[in-house]
């Protein structure tokens, strides 16, 4: 019995209607930008395994750091205790985070990083005796699958079954080209009510919506409106963080800085689940009180896990190296060259590039559902060709490891171009 067949007996996979899909492909090993299945077939991981693996699979530098940490301290509770990897990680992150970020709260994945941020926003005003119980988010946002994060997300079929159980979130248009004024006015109207605790957003790129991009000036304007009206701002950098947009964080493009940031995915180089929510000193001080009930009563068993911190420290060190920074610039340049080549193709509706992110919208003549037949045909075609891409409806995006070779990237482009001809 194959590994794939054995998998079907007990495992329930994410975002999967098991009755409608083929058995999961069993991956046996990985190296760099490549993966191999149990039959020895090679795949180019062109989406860095859901955006978590910028430094390549089986990265020896990160693996050595994890092994070294495991031989001294694998885990200790973070309630009442601390350890060197957590202290070092906080110090190293402060060197690259926006300078208004002063405090870190550790958790274990992107959804929980967002969950922490939203809870802090709501409790911050509760602690002050102010009634601000609502959240503002973008249309078609995605912030995760835990309950508060799910409430902030705007892709309806992800949340439809739970609508009656969610916190109240009001959505404003994404300020894409031509819709900036509409977005500004919608936020200004909401701000007048003094009912909103926070505005949460994916800075500059909405990932799960299909790599929808908008301009820096528009986000800066929205954040300024929030500041003027005492609405906290939460930058969900789970996808965009650690080099994806070309800079360490998408927020580095902004003059206005958020009150909170949510980090995960590439934080540990795709090795160990870990997340961090960062805060200004003012937010931390809103919980610092003689009243124990004003504390943040939130935690995770593996909060600040030393092994995860060691992986994150190694990942941060790699991110700063010339090899990785040159890789980010190289991928961006290759994307721009491919964009010039492909954007006039008769089946291409739009293209967009930011950092290592490339997105292409295929003109199909009709509206295509998120997991519809057209998307599934594209996905199957890419897999058959040995390229891992997960289209969002009719949008194909490429977000590869920074260490991908030129020849591997060229193959990805060739397969995308071939798909336009035959799918």
UniProtKB/TrEMBL annotation:
Q: Where does the UniProt annotation locate this protein?
A: Cytoplasm
Residues bearing N6-(pyridoxal phosphate)lysine are 265
Cytoplasm found in the keyword field: yes
> GO: which molecular function terms?
adenosylmethionine-8-amino-7-oxononanoate transaminase activity
Keyword GTP-binding on entry:
no
The pathway this protein participates in, as annotated, is:
Cofactor biosynthesis; biotin biosynthesis; 7,8-diaminononanoate from 8-amino-7-oxononanoate (SAM route): step 1/1
Which reaction(s) are listed as its catalytic activity?
A: (8S)-8-amino-7-oxononanoate + S-adenosyl-L-methionine = S-adenosyl-4-methylsulfanyl-2-oxobutanoate + (7R,8S)-7,8-diammoniononanoate
Q: Where is this site: Participates in the substrate recognition with KAPA and in a stacking interaction with the adenine ring of SAM?
A: 15
* Record function comment: Catalyzes the transfer of the alpha-amino group from S-adenosyl-L-methionine (SAM) to 7-keto-8-aminopelargonic acid (KAPA) to form 7,8-diaminopelargonic acid (DAPA). It is the only aminotransferase known to utilize SAM as an amino donor.
Its subunit composition reads: Homodimer.
What's the protein name?
Adenosylmethionine-8-amino-7-oxononanoate aminotransferase
């Amino acid at each position: 019995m194959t590994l794939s067949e054995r998998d079907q007996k007990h495992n329930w996979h994410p975002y999967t209607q098991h009755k409608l899909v083929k058995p999961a492909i069993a991956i046996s090993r990985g190296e760099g930008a490549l993966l191999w299945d149990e039959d020895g077939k090679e795949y180019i991981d062109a989406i860095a395994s859901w955006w978590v693996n910028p430094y390549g699979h089986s990265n020896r530098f990160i693996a050595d750091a994890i092994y070294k940490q495991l031989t001294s301290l694998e885990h200790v509770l973070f309630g009442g205790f601390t350890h060197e990897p957590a202290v070092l990680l906080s110090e190293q992150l402060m060197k690259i985070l926006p300078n208004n970020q002063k405090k870190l709260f550790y958790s274990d994945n992107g959804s929980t990083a967002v969950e922490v941020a939203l809870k802090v926003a709501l409790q911050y005003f509760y602690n002050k005796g102010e009634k601000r119980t609502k959240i503002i988010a973008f249309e078609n946002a995605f912030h995760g699958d835990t309950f508060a994060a799910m409430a902030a997300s705007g892709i309806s079929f992800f949340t439809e079954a739970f609508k009656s159980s969610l916190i109240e979130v009001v959505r404003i248009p994404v300020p894409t080209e031509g819709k900036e004024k509409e977005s500004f006015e919608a936020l200004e109207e909401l701000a007048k009510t003094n009912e909103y605790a926070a505005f949460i957003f994916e800075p500059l790129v909405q990932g799960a919506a299909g790599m929808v991009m908008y301009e820096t000036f528009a986000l800066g304007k929205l954040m300024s409106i929030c500041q003027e009206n005492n609405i906290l701002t939460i930058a969900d950098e789970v996808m965009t963080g650690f080099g994806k947009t070309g800079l360490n964080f998408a927020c580095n493009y902004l003059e206005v800085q958020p009150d909170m940031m949510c980090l995960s995915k590439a934080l540990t180089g795709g090795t160990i689940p870990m997340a961090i929510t960062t805060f200004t000193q003012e937010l931390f001080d809103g919980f610092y009180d003689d009243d124990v009930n004003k504390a943040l009563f939130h935690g995770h068993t593996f909060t600040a896990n030393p092994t995860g911190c060691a992986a994150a420290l190694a990942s941060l060190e790699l991110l700063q190296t010339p090899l990785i920074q040159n890789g980010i610039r190289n991928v961006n340049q290759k994307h721009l060259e491919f964009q010039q080549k492909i954007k006039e193709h008769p089946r291409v509706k739009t293209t967009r590039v930011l950092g290592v992110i490339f997105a292409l919208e295929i003109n199909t003549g009709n509206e295509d559902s998120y997991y519809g037949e057209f998307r599934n045909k594209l996905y199957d075609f890419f897999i058959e060709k040995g390229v891992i891409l997960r289209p969002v409806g009719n949008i194909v995006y490429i977000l590869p490891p920074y260490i991908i070779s030129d020849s591997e990237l060229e193959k990805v482009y060739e397969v995308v171009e071939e798909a336009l001809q035959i799918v």
